[in-house]
C-alpha cells in the first residue's frame, strides 16, 4: 500500500472522531479521557491526545495511533484498517486484492448491494416498488436507506457475481448464497433488502423482507466472518451523531420501525434486529449515550423482550425508559397513524425500568396463587440495579409489593449477594485463572514512562534525531527494547515506514511505548522545555541506579577505591540537584 496515501489518510482523519464512535470522551486538560474500551474499569484511565493523534491507557497499557485503534477494535489487519479509514475520509485507494487476486468480503458485499439496488429500479423491482409505496416509504428515501430488491429467481445474484469474477467461496462466506443439492442458489429471493452496516459504516450483512408470504417474513445474513447479529444495531452508523447530540437512543425491534422513526425526525433510532437484545449491542449504545428509550412492539412477546433487554442495558450503566405503545401497534404503524408529535408524547410518558416492571406485573401480583413467584421475579430483576439508581423508586416499589422499605432493601441486598455468589461459583467451575501475576513476566512488560517520553520526543522531532549524539542517549535508557527503537530512528529510518512494519508484523510494543511517551509529555505546558526535563530526570534515575549498585558493593566490602569515590561524587550531585544537561 502506498505510504503517501497512508499519510494522507491519517492527516485527513481526526482520531477524536474515530475513537468517539466507540467510547464517550470527556475533556481532560489538553486531551480527552474515557473508560478504556480494551478492559473493564470504573475510573477513566484511557487518554486521547489529539495534537499528537495518539491514545494510551494507563490501566492496561494499550496505545497507538488511529490505525492501531481500528485494528484492535474491529479485529482487522493493517491493510483492512487503512481501507476502512480511507472510506471514512473519502479517499479512494486501490484495494489490496486477497490471495488469488480476488476481492475482499466487504467488496463482495458492496457489489451485491449494488446489484440489489439496481434490481429495485429495474423491471423485476415493480412489485417491491409498489410494496414500498404502499408502506408509505417514498422513493426519495430509498437511496438514503440503501434499500434494494432480491429478484425471486433461483440464482440471479450468484450468476451476476460469478460473471464479475467473484469466487463461490467468498460469496458463501458472505452468506449471500447457499449450497444445495442442485448447486448454489441465492439466500435472498423475492425479498426487499435492507443493508446492515456496523458502527463504522462497513457493510456486514443484509435483512430481507418476503413479499410472497412464503417462508419467514424476515431473514438475516447468517453468522459468519463479517456478520454477527448480536453485535450490530441497524442504522447506528446513521444515528450515532444524533444520539450524541440528543443525549438518548431510541431502541426498536425492526427495520421499518427504525426507518419510520428516522423519517419522522427521530434520527437517534436504532433497531436490535430481533427481540433478543445482547450485551454487545448494549455496549454499542453505551459508547454514545447514558440514556435509552426502549420501544418494542406492544404484544406480550415485545413486553417480555423489553424487560430482558432493559436489565442488560441497566447493568451496563444506561438509564432505561420503556415506551408503551397502544395494543397491537408497532412504532411504524403508530407513527403512520398518529405522527411524530404523538410519539414524542409517548416518550415523555415512558416509565423507567423499575416502575415499568411493576406495572406489567400488577395483575399477577393480585393473584394469590402467583404473587409469591412474581415477587421473587421482581426482586431478582430489581436487584441487578445499583441501589443508588433504584433509591428514587423504592417507596413506590415497596408500596406496590406491600413491604416495609427496610424489608425491601434487605431482600434486594440478599438477592444481589446470591447473584454474586452464583457468578463466582460458575467462574470456579470454568477454572477461573489465578489472580497472581508472575513478577518477572510483569516486569518485562512494563515500560518506563520517562524513557518512553524520550522515544516519543525523538519520534516527533526530525531535527533532534539528526543532531543528537547516540552516546548521549543510550546510557539513559535501561529498556533494551526502547534502545532498539531509538537506534532505528537515529540510524535514519523513517517513522512512517517503521510504523507500517510494526503494524503488519503485529508488534504492538513500539506503538504502546510511543503512546505512553506522548501521554507523559501531555502533562507539561507549552512553556516547558520538555526535552530538558525528561533528559534531566533520566540522568537522575541513571545516577541513582548506579549509586545503589555501588553502595551495595560497598556494604559487601567489594567496592574499589575508585568506586567509593564515585559513590561520594554521585551523592554530592544528587544532593545538589544540578545535573548539567
TrEMBL record:
It holds the Pfam family Zn_ribbon_DnaG. It comes from the Bacteria. Its cofactor is Zn(2+). NCBIfam families: dnaG. Monomer. Interacts with DnaB. Belongs to the DnaG primase family. Contains an N-terminal zinc-binding domain, a central core domain that contains the primase activity, and a C-terminal DnaB-binding domain. RNA polymerase that catalyzes the synthesis of short RNA molecules used as primers for DNA polymerase during DNA replication. This is DNA primase. The gene is dnaG.
Amino acid at each position: 500500500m502506498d505510504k503517501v496515501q497512508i499519510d494522507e489518510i491519517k492527516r485527513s482523519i481526526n482520531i477524536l472522531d474515530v475513537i468517539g464512535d466507540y467510547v464517550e470522551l470527556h475533556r481532560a486538560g489538553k486531551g480527552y479521557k474515557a473508560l478504556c474500551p480494551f478492559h473493564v474499569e470504573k475510573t477513566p484511565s484511557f487518554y486521547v491526545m489529539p495534537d499528537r493523534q495518539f491514545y494510551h491507557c494507563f490501566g492496561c497499557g494499550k496505545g497507538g495511533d488511529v490505525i492501531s485503534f481500528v485494528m484492535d477494535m474491529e479485529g482487522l489487519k493493517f491493510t483492512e484498517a487503512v481501507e476502512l479509514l480511507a472510506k471514512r475520509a473519502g479517499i479512494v485507494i486501490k484495494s489490496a486484492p486477497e490471495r488469488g487476486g480476488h476481492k475482499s468480503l466487504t467488496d463482495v458485499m458492496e457489489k451485491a448491494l449494488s446489484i440489489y439496488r439496481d434490481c429495485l429500479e429495474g423491471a423485476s423491482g415493480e412489485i417491491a416498488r409498489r410494496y414500498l409505496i404502499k408502506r408509505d416509504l417514498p422513493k426519495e428515501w430509498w437511496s438514503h436507506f440503501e434499500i434494494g430488491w432480491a429478484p425471486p429467481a433461483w440464482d440471479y445474484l450468484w450468476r451476476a457475481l460469478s460473471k464479475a469474477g467473484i469466487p463461490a467461496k467468498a460469496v458463501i462466506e458472505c452468506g449471500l448464497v447457499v449450497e444445495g443439492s442442485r448447486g448454489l442458489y441465492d439466500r435472498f429471493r423475492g425479498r426487499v433488502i435492507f443493508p446492515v452496516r456496523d458502527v463504522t459504516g462497513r457493510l456486514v450483512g443484509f435483512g430481507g423482507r418476503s413479499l410472497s408470504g412464503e417462508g419467514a417474513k424476515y431473514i438475516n445474513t447468517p453468522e459468519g466472518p463479517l456478520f454477527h447479529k448480536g453485535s450490530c444495531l441497524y442504522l447506528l452508523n446513521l444515528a450515532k451523531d444524533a444520539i450524541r447530540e440528543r443525549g438518548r437512543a431510541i431502541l426498536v425491534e425492526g427495520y421499518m420501525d427504525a426507518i419510520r422513526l428516522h423519517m419522522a425526525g427521530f434520527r437517534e433510532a436504532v433497531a436490535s434486529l430481533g427481540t433478543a437484545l445482547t450485551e454487545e449491542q448494549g455496549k454499542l449504545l453505551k459508547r454514545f449515550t447514558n440514556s435509552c428509550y426502549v420501544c418494542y412492539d406492544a404484544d406480550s412477546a415485545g413486553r417480555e423482550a423489553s424487560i430482558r433487554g432493559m436489565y442488560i442495558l441497566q447493568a451496563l450503566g444506561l438509564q432505561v425508559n420503556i415506551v408503551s405503545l397502544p395494543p397491537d401497534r408497532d412504532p411504524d404503524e403508530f407513527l403512520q397513524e398518529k405522527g411524530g408529535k404523538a410519539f414524542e408524547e409517548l416518550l415523555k410518558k415512558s416509565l423507567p425500568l423499575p416502575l415499568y416492571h411493576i406495572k406489567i406485573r400488577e395483575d399477577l401480583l393480585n393473584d394469590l396463587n402467583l404473587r409469591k413467584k412474581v415477587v421473587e421475579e421482581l426482586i431478582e430483576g430489581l436487584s441487578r440495579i445499583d441501589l443508588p439508581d433504584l433509591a428514587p423508586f423504592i417507596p413506590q416499589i415497596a408500596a406496590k409489593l406491600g413491604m416495609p422499605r427496610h424489608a425491601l432493601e434487605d431482600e434486594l441486598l440478599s438477592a444481589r449477594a446470591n447473584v454474586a455468589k452464583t457468578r463466582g461459583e460458575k467462574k470456579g467451575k470454568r477454572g477461573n485463572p489465578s489472580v497472581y501475576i508472575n513478577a518477572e513476566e510483569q516486569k518485562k512488560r512494563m515500560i518506563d514512562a520517562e524513557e518512553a517520553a524520550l522515544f516519543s520526543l525523538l519520534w516527533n522531532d526530525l531535527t533532534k534525531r539528526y543532531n543528537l549524539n547516540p552516546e548521549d542517549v543510550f546510557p539513559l535508557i535501561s529498556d533494551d527494547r526502547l534502545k532498539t527503537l531509538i537506534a532505528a530512528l537515529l540510524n535514519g529510518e523513517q517513522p512512517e515506514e517503521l510504523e507500517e512494519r510494526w503494524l503488519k508484523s503485529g508488534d504492538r510494543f513500539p506503538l504502546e511505548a510511543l503512546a505512553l511517551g506522548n501521554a507523559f509529555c501531555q502533562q507539561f505546558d507549552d512553556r516547558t522545555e520538555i526535552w530538558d526535563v525528561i533528559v534531566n530526570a533520566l540522568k537522575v534515575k541513571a545516577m541513582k541506579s548506579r549509586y545503589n549498585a555501588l553502595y551495595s558493593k560497598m556494604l559487601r566490602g567489594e567496592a574499589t577505591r575508585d568506586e567509593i569515590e564515585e559513590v561520594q561524587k554521585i551523592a554530592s550531585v544528587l544532593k545538589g540537584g544540578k545535573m548539567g544537561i
